[in-house]
Design a protein that fits this description.
There is one protein chain. This protein is of the alpha+beta class and 311 residues long. The protein has twelve helices and 14 strands. The protein is globular, with a radius of gyration of 23 Å.
Amino acid sequence: ADAYKAYGKRWPHVERSRVVLFVAHQDESNELDHRKLEMALFKNHQIVSLRRSLTQLAAQCSSLLVPLAGHQNTGHTSPQALVVDGHEVTVAYFRSGYWPEQYNPAEACWEARELIERSEAVKCPSAPAQLAGMKKVQQVLCKPDQIGLFLGRQAELLARTFAKMSDPTVASDDVQAALRDPSDWVLKPQIEGSGNLLFDAEIPDALQSRSEVELAELILMERIRPPITPSAIYSAEKGGRAVPSVRNSVGELGIFGTLVADGRRQLRNAACGHLLRSKAHQTNQGGVFVGNAVVDAPLLLPPQMFWPRVL
């Protein structure tokens, strides 16, 4: 909503109805999650949303960019509005476009993504912001001299909390350590949330058998071993009744953050919630939708009660 309002302040001349665009799969299995956001936008801010897939947008490439009202068209660098089916898009919110397979047909979908980036619509995320979430960029930011460009003196303290991340194509000490004892490492794809992590004996096999090009698609990361805690879950066989049970689990807590910026000027930077996922402690691969993990709820305990129970 703040991004929608910021767009309106920058481009106050209104010629078309303005909307928020959800870029999503045509066969989205997580649609209800999106719909809650759409409903909140409309109920709380009277903002209308559109849902389109990259494939649908690719079919409209020739008409996606239109000169903004009140601005003379002076060529490629003139401000362009993103227009979808007659509606001016203020915010393009990507719930798709994170995996190469989601660009199909590839050439047309990549052209559509480029046109969205060239438009004046606010992108969530923009292409640079999306690339910043890739493992390769995270690997570079693990270096104190790199994170120091953004945090100054705090960089060294923050870097102490980082797990090691290394390029598996380089014969580094970390790669040699992973070959000797792979149990302390994991090989991860660049793409967030893609699964297909490699553990234990799979790691030396991949390091020794894959080509440099294939290994460049991965990042070698120090394995994080969170404390094991009991977690209440429901389990059921197909067609059966859900039965509550308690299992030993490991959790991953994510904090939702919102950032709206106009160049270097921040309009909003705030935490706005959390998501806790847990899986059985002996399970390597994660993923709620593939059945390896569940959405969980935290139970907060004083440190003097928590740590003696999990150590």
